[in-house]
Amino acid sequence: MSTERIEEFLGAVKAAFAANTLIGLKLGGYHGAEADLKSIDVKKIVAKGTEKFSFTFHYKTRDIIKNQIQPEALGNLRTALRDEFRSARLATTEFDLTFERNGDKVRLKRTDVAGRVAPSTGHDRAKNRPLTATDKPWLHALGITGKDGQVRNDAQDKFRQINKMVEIFAPLIQAIKVDKPRIVDMGAGKGYLDFALYDYLDGKADIIGVELRDKLVADGNATAAASGFAGLSFVPGTILDYDATGADAVIALHACDTATDDAIYQGIKAGASLIAVAPCCHKQIRRQMEAGKPATELGVLLRHGIFLERQAEMVTDTFRALLLELSGYRVKVFEFVSDAHTPKNNLVVAEKDGRAGRDRDAVLKQIAETKALFGVERHYLEGLLGL
Ligand SMILES: C[S@@+](CC[C@H](N)C(=O)[O-])C[C@H]1O[C@@H](n2cnc3c(N)ncnc32)[C@H](O)[C@@H]1O
Q1: Which partner from 27, 134, 198, 288 sits 20 to 30 angstroms from 85, CA to CA?
Q2: Which atom of ligand 1 is nearest to 238's Cα?
């Protein structure tokens, strides 16, 4: 008898889910084995094109979100209604259906309503983050989440930052016209970007992180294996020594000073469709600007150390943009994370044009003029490119 009622209730949930009339489902009166669980809210979402039930488990001091596809979700709801929750309320655009269980007896009550509109199923747009589920081993291994699967208070900024990176990088990678692009992340560090991108792209790319420090490489590979990320790996060594042949994208985030140029050079040499770098320090050019003879008119702009540093940053990245253009890339430079996270927040994005680069003589002339203006003898990347 109660089984029939439970199936009737589940049938109404399933129909509302299918017809997009589901507003929400709340389970209460919990009497199961989890000490601090109070209630569960359920709604429909569409994540990466797949319709799912999104469960928010309300515990005494925290909430945990889990998203499940329909068969799994309905199975769990069946168990919950039968054994763990005494009450439930399904809200749809057309009616409310309440569920009351007392021992073996179940009572359903339907109340018709009018004028309701189903909420958007866009995935948690309020937070606007590509990485919504936080119960992932890699997030825990990288210290972003705690044992409870929640983002730690002191890692909220980092979590926002990697979400922002995914938002920027995923479309760039998806625009590469190759089935399973090969992405090489130079100076990968702990691999935050690589794990986040691999997860978000659902394995539709191979990602290799190149990193100098053996310990980070070993940790990254262990976490990738534990996460079942077969196409994500880390290799030890220097950026320049890595054989990047076949790379469709070369990325480098905050690789130190000229390591960024090593990455750009490797991308150009491999003929990668995408080269994207977020430069770090700009010492090589700063030293030359200090030692060289910038145009007298610039003296007033370079007098203060902080302004000299910012000019060095702009001059260095201007050379990089010009040299990429010379090599047949279309280049954009923009701010990629708010400087609340890091002051090193410029992203140089170069996409292979398919056409010959800009007029070679014109670009070389611009480079020469800029060098003369700022008292720069030679930019490191020029040397790599044999100019
Ligand atoms: C500031 S960290 C950034 C790490 C990572 N890309 C991120 O944004 O979280 C720079 C990393 O690049 C590595 N690195 C610096 N120069 C390198 C080189 N020439 N070859 C390989 N790795 C390098 C360092 O060991 C360090 O882990």
Answers
A1: 134
A2: 20
How far apart CA 292 and CA 195 sit, in angstroms, is 43
Per-residue pLDDT of the chain (387 residues; tens, 9 = 90+): 689 999 999 999 999 999 888 999 999 999 998 888 999 999 998 877 788 999 988 888 777 888 899 889 999 999 999 999 999 999 998 899 999 999 889 999 999 887 677 776 665 443 557 787 778 899 999 999 988 888 888 888 888 888 888 988 998 999 898 999 999 999 999 999 999 999 999 889 999 999 999 999 999 999 999 999 999 999 999 999 999 999 999 999 998 889 999 999 999 999 999 999 998 877 888 888 888 888 888 888 888 888 888 888 899 999 999 999 999 999 999 877 655 555 677 899 999 976 656 788 999 999 999 999 999 999 999 999 999
Which amino acid is present at 315?
Answer: V
Q: What CATH architecture does domain 152-384 belong to?
A: 3-Layer(aba) Sandwich (3.40)
Burial 262-292 (b: 16+ CB within 10 A, else e): bbbbbbbbbebbbbbbbbbbbebbbebbeee
Tell me the one-letter amino acid at 385.
L
Quote helix, strand, coil % in the chain, to nearest 5: 40, 25, 35
Q: How many distinct helices (H) and strands (E) make up the chain?
A: 12, 14
Ligand 1 binding pocket includes 211 (Cβ within 6 Å): yes
* Domain boundary assignment for the chain: 2-112, 152-384
214 C-beta closer than 6 A to ligand 1: no
| Pairing label, strands 182-186, 63-68 | unpaired
Q: Residue with the nearest Cα to atom 27 of ligand 1?
A: 189
**β-pairing, 232-236 with 206-211?**
parallel
CA of 191 to the centre of ligand 1 (A): 10
pTM: 0.68
Q: CA-CA distance, 28 to 11, in Å (whole number)?
A: 19
